[in-house]
Amino acid sequence: MIEFDILARFSDEVNFTAEIDCAEDAPYSVKLGLAVKWGVEHDADLSNADLSNADLSNADLSNTNLWNTSLRSADLSNCNLSNASLRSADLSNASLWNTSLRSADL
After folding, report:
1. pTM of the prediction?
2. What's the farthest any 2 CA atoms get from each other in the chain?
3. Could you tell me which of 27, 31, 30 has the C-alpha nearest to residue 5?
4. Local confidence pLDDT in tens for the 106 residues of the chain
5. In Å, how far are 27, 51, 82, 97, 106 from 8, measured between CA atoms?
6. What CA–CA distance (Å, rounded) separates 35 from 3?
7. How far apart are CA 3 and CA 89, in angstroms?
């Protein structure tokens, strides 16, 4: 088990620290994806977070507040973003293949 910090989008402030089951030498994108999934399970605040390049494929992020979050170049393929708040989120170059955006607030 390792601790992994989710940082704010426009500063180096820590939004929250996740406890993930992952190898120390795992790719950053995998660690970040696991930390986000941990955050969703623990009701962490994901708004204003820097989630750029995260591997969030197959994640259930339905009803999640991702307001003003950077998801630039994130892998969101097969992700459930139904009813998620994505207002002001940066989805530049994100992979949205087969992603559910039903009733998402864009």
Report:
1. 0.88
2. 38
3. 31
4. 899 999 999 988 999 999 999 999 999 999 999 999 999 999 998 999 999 999 999 999 999 999 999 999 999 999 999 999 999 999 999 999 999 989 988 8
5. 20, 9, 23, 26, 20
6. 9
7. 25
CA-nearest of 25, 4, 1 to 16 is 4
- Tokens 């892998």 correspond to 75
Helices (H), 11-87: 28-41
Residues 6+ apart with CB under 8 A from 68: 9, 47, 48, 87, 88, 89
Across-strand partners of 75? 55, 95
Side chain identity, residue 55 = D
Tokens in use for 47? 């708004």
